[in-house]
Amino acid sequence: MLQEVVDDFVASLASEGVERAGGSHNTRMAYRNDLGQLCTYMLKQGITTWSEVTPDHLLTYISSMREGQVYRPATIARKLAAFRTFFRYLGYEERIKEDPTVDILLPPIVRGVPHVLNTTQINVLFRLAEQDTPFGLRDFAMLHLLYATGIRTSELVALDLNQYQREHGFIHCSGVRGRSEQDRCLPLTPAAVDAMENYLLHGREWFLRSFGEPALFLNHRGERLSRQGFWLIIKGYARRAGIHDLTPHRLRHSFTLLMLNNGMEVESIQELLGHVHLSTTQIYCQLIQA
């Protein structure tokens, strides 16, 4: 009975009108996982219907997650947020009379300072992309695009050829559901424009298998490069450069620090990054407070 209701809720997230609030596939899978674990716990407590769940049940479950530091505070907060959304749904569907999550506070989350690359490390990465091969031209263009715009990996690999506006020197970036739904025009540095032009003139054609392929960045099969494929490329460069824990997001962090050091207003950086909340961007200000 418990799991069947969860299945109904997860299915509702994909329906029209609810999708904007978190209907992506990854979000639905996260809800299914978090609520599935809650189902298992409640069944062990002898709970068979959601109307039997009390605040004490939830608080005990949250305490069990905290014990032994099994889950980080951020993870517990995410799970509790999922529970709140779920119980609001149950109230709307009139399956419960009272919401047991109403008076439960989210655990405090201490956010760390983002890790960034220094100028030397970035230059090493650029040098490792051999510009006398199609692969090197492609990788050089992608690295420059990441560092020049702070674009997300998912946005980078989703770019189509027509989203690159050479004459205006910018990339038109479509919003990502669940993060920023606003389209953004991301200005490119002259170095990034040069890297893009070299890739398009001397590299992309080598990958191309179908004349009508819209994707900007292609893999060796002539198909759109995937997030996993890009991740493997970054890992390869990180290993060669001797940079530990390099992720595409660290390049995004490095872009943000560069913009702050250049005197750009935090609100302008927020717009470029596509952050929904200004507080997310303000975390980076700690990097220049010294």
TrEMBL record:
Q: The Core-binding (CB) domain covers which part of the protein?
A: 1-91
Alphabetically sorted, this entry's keywords are: DNA integration, DNA recombination, DNA-binding
Gene Ontology molecular function: DNA binding
Boundaries of every Tyr recombinase domain copy = 112-290
PROSITE patterns found in the cross-reference section: CB, TYR_RECOMBINASE
GO biological process annotations for this chain's record?
Answer: DNA integration; DNA recombination
Kindly provide the name given to this protein in its UniProt entry: Tyrosine recombinase XerC
Please tell me the species this chain comes from.
Dictyobacter arantiisoli
- Which lineage ranks, top first, belong to the organism behind this chain? Bacteria, Bacillati, Chloroflexota, Ktedonobacteria, Ktedonobacterales
Give the gene symbol: xerC
